[in-house]
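Dear colleague,

Following up on yesterday's call, I've attached the two folding results inline so they're easy to grep. Please treat them as preliminary; we haven't cross-checked anything against experimental data yet. The first protein's sequence and structure tokens come first.
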Amino acid sequence: MFEIGVSARFEAAHRLIGDFGPATRMHGHTYRIEVAIRGPRLQPDGTLIDITRLQAALDAIVNDLHYRDLADVPGLEQINTTAENLAHYCWQRLAQALQGSPIVTLTVRIWENPDAYAAYEDQL
């Protein structure tokens, strides 16, 4: 299986709903998002997909999230913006942008800080 990946950072604020102690108050993170795609064969040009296509798809998401309250972002306004839910939201947007490519799996990992992340992975 071949794999390529890209990453980016963005700043965003959110508050959690439920029994999360101080995290139920508005707070922010410097998020790191990592995206990896896997597939069994390369295209004739020797790539899984053009990595700039993957980076552009990620950049579009990051531009929508950067310096935002996540509760105000369309698609996130009705969910608890845990790292797990944010990873799933980003996965869905990336899967849509990468339709038609020879990818088998897509993984999105959201780091809330240097030591903690949540990820979502599924087949396309």
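Below is the second protein, in the same order (sequence, then structure):
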Amino acid sequence: MPTLTLSLLADVYAVCRLPAGTPAGSPKPGAFSLLVQAVEETTLVCPLQQAPSDAEIDAGWRCFRIMQNFDFSVPGILASVLEPLAKAGIGIFATSTFSTDYVLVKEQDAAHAMAALRSAGHQVDL
């Protein structure tokens, strides 16, 4: 598995849940946001200050972005990040885009997550 470079994004994020079918506006453009509309709920991940007041909000997440882009056929990229975090007892919220992966950890776990990722051989930039 190649050594990955991860970047810790500056914002503090919120993971928000809205009832299924609830119209959710797109967050303002920035380093990262996510909108998923599924049959059971709408999930929005956005900078904390953009969290909708009518949502169930789980606040205080920090976001790591894998800086490299890999073809879909390359196995184990996300696992190489999640495994050291799991071994360190750190809970995560992970998602992917077409180009890369994002892993969120609670703010109080961010320093421990950086240490675990570095111990696994990854580079973590602030």
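For the second protein, one point worth flagging: The mean pLDDT is 94.

Best wishes,
A.L.
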